[in-house]
Amino acid sequence: QVCAQLCRRPCYCPWVPPRCPRGSPLVLDGCGCCKICARRLGEPCDFLHVCDQSQALVCDYSSASAGTGGTCNFEDDEEGCEVNGRVYRDGEVFQPSCKIQCHCLDGGFNCIPLCQEDVRLPTPDCPYPRRVEIPGKCCPEWICEAQDQHLLRDARAVSPQLRYPCQEWSTEWSTCSATCGLGFATRVSNQNRYCRLETQRRLCMLSPCPALPAAFPAVS
């Protein structure tokens, strides 16, 4: 549907503003009249249905035929990447979670872990080091167990029936938080030293994220 570019006055807008998908803010339409959902990267646009200017998107009419709308694209043919419904500009650094930092580059993105993956060897002052999740902190930390605690864990490892001091219980692992690239899966389980219900997380990746196509078609 092609909207007329002549704005009507006074404005006649719905009583309830539309509910926008994630990553699409409420903005005024091209007439400055009613609130609409801003169009995102690659979505159709025209005079009335404007693009998300907070993401530096403009309505590109370069590949549209006369009388039709355009497509939301970056200014100056700039590439970007979209993660979990949010668009990042080329060169932008962002954090999908506190444990990962990503860099948007050439339509794709690379991520590095922010938590140290160091290995702590036993020392006289810490003969039994163990990495644990600390409530309120993002990255796990090393702790030093006492010898009797270490021997108890070894005994449970040798005897499967003594592995946990209570009946084991856990939910299924959730679906990955990301449809592509690195994400997290969670479950609730009592399989820990204290037999307490806790939320456990693990990394997951269903498939690598495809690179976005170039903003404008190449000119032969």
Automatic annotation (TrEMBL):
Every IGFBP N-terminal domain range: 1-75
GO BP annotations listed: cell adhesion; positive regulation of cell differentiation; signal transduction
GO cellular component terms, A-Z: extracellular matrix; extracellular space; nucleus
Originating species: Certhia familiaris
Keywords annotated in UniProt: Cell adhesion, Disulfide bond, Secreted, Signal
Job of this protein: May play an important role in modulating bone turnover. Promotes the adhesion of osteoblast cells and inhibits the binding of fibrinogen to integrin receptors. In addition, inhibits osteocalcin production.
GO terms assigned for molecular function: heparin binding; integrin binding
PROSITE patterns per UniProt: IGFBP_N_1, IGFBP_N_2, TSP1, VWFC_1, VWFC_2
Alphabetized InterPro entries for the sequence: CCN, Growth_fac_rcpt_cys_sf, IGFBP-like, Insulin_GF-bd_Cys-rich_CS, TSP1_CCN, TSP1_rpt, TSP1_rpt_sf, VWF_dom
Subcellular location: Secreted
VWFC domain mapped to chain residues: 79-145
Family in the record: Belongs to the CCN family.
Pfam family, one: IGFBP
Record-given protein name: CCN family member 5
Signal peptide: none
